[in-house]
Amino acid sequence: MTEIGNRSSRSRGGAKKGITIERIYTTPGVHPYDEVTWEKRDVVQQNWKTGETIFEQRGVEFPDFWSVNASTIVTTKYFRGALGTDQRETSLKQLIDRVVLTYVKAGKDHGYFGTEEDAEVFEHELTHALLHQVFSFNSPVWFNVGTKSPQQVSACFILSVDDSMDSILNWYKEEGKIFQGGSGAGLNLSRIRSSKELLSSGGTASGPVSFMRGADASAGTIKSGGATRRAAKMVVLDVDHPDIEEFVETKAREEDKIRALRDAGFDMDLGGKDIVSVQYQNANNSVRVTDEFMQAVEDGTEFGLRARLTGEVIETVDARDLFKKISQAAWECADPGLQYDDTINAWHTNPETGRITASNPCSEYMSLDNSSCNLASLNLLKFLRDDDTFDAATFQKVAELVITAMDISICFADFPTEPIGDTTRNYRQLGIGYANLGALLMATGHGYDSEGGRALAAAITSLLTGASYKRSAELAAVVGPYNGYARNADAHKRVMRKHQAANDNIKTLDAMDLSVHKLATKAWDDVIKLGEKHGYRNAQASVLAPTGTIGFMMDCDTTGIEPDFSLVKFKKLVGGGSMQIVNLTIPRALKKLGYQQEQIEAIVEYIADKGHVIDAPGLKPEHYEVFDTAMGARAIPPMGHVRMMAAVQPFLSGAISKTVNLPESATVEDIEMVYMEGWKLGLKALACYRDNCKVGQPLSDAKAKSEAKDEDKAVEKVIEYRPVRRRLPKRRTSQTTSFAVGGAEGYLTAGTYDDGQLGEIFLKFGKQGSTLAGVMDAFSIAVSIGLQYGVPLETFVEKFTNLRFEPAGLTDDPDVRMAQSIMDYVFRRLALDYLDFDTRSFIGIHTAAERARQVETGSFEEIATEGDDDIEDELQSLQQSAPVAKKVEPKQEKAEDRSVEVKSGAGAASARATSSDVHSSAELMEKFQGISADAPICMTCGTKMRPAGSCYVCEGCGSTSGCS
């Protein structure tokens, strides 16, 4: 794949050492931009709460297959230049060129490429991969590279602080500079003397918790000084620090204060005017635990707390009691998390330089103090072929291409402080990772919490890191190993062998993970051989980051290592407005599991209505696990998340940004179990979040809804609105349809108004005078009166289709071949006879002719009927094999007219209009579940955010709660 050395036959002007870049996607002589269709879009963004327009840029240029959300987020977040000026970027081409051409120039300047041809192939392949959403760099790259701003490319930083006032004040300063740039930082405070130790002057030290107050206030001030995201920080304290109990309880005590102030009438919501009076809210807290401590917890023995200067034990505590306090605090307020110190340092490639003592705010980057990490993530779903096999060979090639680009970025990058710059240039830490794992597992018929799902995830992660270190060794042969390699060579090679041994222990279960594992095994063999000869260019290669904003940029269904958030999603339309759609991987998964087209349509329609798969028509219970999600009726259990993390952890240089969610009913003992099992399974870090353990936004929402209801009641006392019955004329047109369901015969008579609108039905089923016939008569009268009082027919159709009872089975109707019950058939038939095409498409009901046309052409087209003058000509067809909408050009109407989306091939119940109070997938889940999601409101656009790794991300504008 890569040749290294002298290649005079290919070089201009003599032999030159460098690497050969292989073509993956591109064609010689054809630029990637010329292979796609471009279109102009208007990006207008509003805060839905206030109605204020917060961003507007018209006529921006994007490929036609990019979703509205992706183009909106890229335009608002990543386009540079002042709005309304010639300097403002207006096209995705400008953005990609700004970044890619900077990388190409740096690669040439620093001797990475063997020839000019290699540089051109590198440019085209990188452009193609970004253009087609195969991968993305982290946000700072898009913010800064190629601009006049400092070329900061890293999103993750680790600082250090010593036991001196100068160092502590410098910590405040350095952290502030990082926050100002929109990034986050973490550090360990354990070098600072405890409040139980003496100063040289004879007084008592303040202790690290005291100094945390100043740093927290600084972070809050910088956040509120104009930034649209929270300052992200991680504070770590060793478990043997004498102030550990005070540290553990800080945020839990503050949460008690929040509740008390809220009950007293103060505004304690996230972003509320009174929340600033509460301390320690701008950091994630973690306790750094050792094997010695965890073993003492298991054994129920004493554990010693040690003085910082002398190392002597100055106090002993009951290990189980301290562990209980840690878990109790996490149960109360989600802090602290745990970082497993011995495991972290057992996988450390640079122990001769120093120990790993801390992490970035999201806990995926763990390396030396005063260092940084550049991140990039691959979109796993882009490597799933049409035949549902994973293209492992292409995945490896792309990983090698991306890791090459990431290493080049360090050559020209700027850093917020000189020590961070020195460490990063000397150790060249990189963090390649992936997104869309949850969607990939679902699409291939793997349950997230299953042996098969974990085996595939492990094999993919092993191949990712193996390919990255293989390329790192190849780069070392060309441009040299990292500066700190020589003193750490033995340790680095030892860790590579540990990764290889873990790869050998993967137990493959099917052909898919077997093919990935074979390539991973070959890659690790190359890593060991090449590394022995050349060393390595990078001290670290891989992490699993949250991929919040860049996940939206790539149109990913799931972020990082997370499972799918929910089966029903919130989607924006090109022409404005929004729609509820069923996750597009579901039909693909059902087909993979062997379901027929009509079964798939019925199941998708059921999911659109219920939001889950429980009791879905025809779905086997053993397949439920494939569709388990992070939230909802079949939420993945906490240990399911832990087991997935454990499956991939041995193949990562760093760690995993992920929070294990527990239900509100979880106990302190449940959190203890999760933390203990995380240690036993070899995780490097773990955090828990129990639903509604924080005051924050959900209670405010409940209060607002309560007030709204009170206002509604007040209005109802003044004016009472009642529907008016519209009676049918004495003589009306009707038609009778005979039918058979599961061998049982019946008759359906439907009467209409003069305008053709349905106004009554009569069902004849069963022997005259029987109980069944009487029930059918009563049901017919009830539905008829409802229709006459204005209940829309589509409401009856939504409620009564998919009802399941006998008789059921085959029918004699070519348009409705299978029915779950009499009611299922009757209301499908009524929908076909009396609802227009668009409305039927929303609920997934089509004629046989329409389904046949879809199979032939790939999209549904409405059959124009006589006298129908009001046909909607603009449809958007959501293809099963693509995560974005394909636009069908309108025949007559203007492009800005109302757009309608239908789901191709799997029942268009996946596409239906959303209510006006729904603005994100999180709010859609609230609607299905009937309970508030415990997530903050975006301070930019007012949309409820959803989890992404160990932070939150906004689907409306791409803002995150701290992680890039």
UniProtKB/TrEMBL annotation:
User: Which residue intervals define the domain Ribonucleotide reductase class II vitamin B12-dependent N-terminal in the entry?
Assistant: 43-133
Q: Which InterPro entries match?
A: RdRp_reductase_class-2, RNR_2_N, RNR_lg_C, RNR_NrdJ/NrdZ, TSCPD_dom
Q: Which UniProt keywords apply?
A: Cobalamin, Cobalt, Disulfide bond, DNA synthesis, Nucleotide-binding, Oxidoreductase
Q: What is its EC number?
A: 1.17.4.1
Instruction: Return one Gene Ontology term, BP aspect.
Output: DNA biosynthetic process
Q: Which reaction does it catalyse?
A: a 2'-deoxyribonucleoside 5'-diphosphate + [thioredoxin]-disulfide + H2O = a ribonucleoside 5'-diphosphate + [thioredoxin]-dithiol
Q: Which SUPFAM superfamilies match?
A: PFL-like glycyl radical enzymes
User: Residue spans with biased composition (Low complexity)?
Assistant: 904-916
Q: What does this protein do?
A: Catalyzes the reduction of ribonucleotides to deoxyribonucleotides. May function to provide a pool of deoxyribonucleotide precursors for DNA repair during oxygen limitation and/or for immediate growth after restoration of oxygen.
The record's family statement is:
Belongs to the ribonucleoside diphosphate reductase class-2 family.
- The protein's name: Vitamin B12-dependent ribonucleotide reductase
Lineage, highest ranks first:
Bacteria, Bacillati, Actinomycetota, Actinomycetes, Micrococcales
